Structure formats: structure tokens, C-alpha cells
Task: structure prediction
Amino acid sequence: MSRFRLEIRVIPRPGLLDPEGKAIQHALHSLDYEQVREVRVGKLLYLDVEAASSEEAREGADVMCRRLLANPITEDFEIDVHEGTEETEETVTA
Result:
């Protein structure tokens, strides 16, 4: 078994209402950021998993998304699989 980091992005389907995104867009406009044309709010999930291969890890993530992590009626999802679980990017917190 190998370890993999799954990065899963869940986003509202195009054309569907996104009230949270609209609220953020309006707030940005009220702060004079008029150049913002659209805001869509989604979820970003990181899962560290053990699997025999990256394909198996992706297939497992797909099933998790369809059963729990994403609403199949209103949301789409994208899955990236990375070998290992070590953070390679520097994280900046405010």
C-alpha cells in the first residue's frame, strides 16, 4: 500500500444559484471591487489515504464524492491525486 493525498474541489454546477457567492460579490462591490464579475463558492478537501495505486485512490475518492462529499444534483467535483502526504507548498496564514 502507498499513501496518497487527494485534493477534491467541490463547486456549484454552472447555471445554478449560488447565494453565498452572490453575497460575497455584492460585499466586494460595496468595498469598491467593481471589477469582480462573478463569485462561486465551493469546498476544498484534502484526504490522506492508503491505496494500492493512484487509480485506486482516485476511484475511491470518486465513490466518496458521489455518496457523501458532493451533492450530485447541484455540485460538480474534481479530484487530483498526489503521491505521498508531505506538504510541498508553503502555507501562509493571515
